[in-house]
Amino acid sequence: CTLVVPDSVVGHIAGLGGKGLHQSHDISGAQLRAYTDKASPLERCVSIRGTDQQIGEALIALGKRFMRK
């Protein structure tokens, strides 16, 4: 699963030093990675890999971080 988010928002989702991604991994067990797609320099991609359940739990965890923004 890959999320595409505006560059201005990815910092809030990923957190300082990737803390938000690490927390989402700890909660879900999914592997998360944020990266820049050269075709879309104003957007960032967040890749989520794992089982369907792990991906779902990671999406919920990231959504909660986004809602606190």
From TrEMBL:
Keywords: RNA-binding. The keyword RNA-binding applies. Pfam families: KH_1. GO terms for molecular function: RNA binding. It comes from the Eukaryota. Residues 2-60 form the K Homology domain. This is K Homology domain-containing protein. It comes from Favolaschia claudopus.
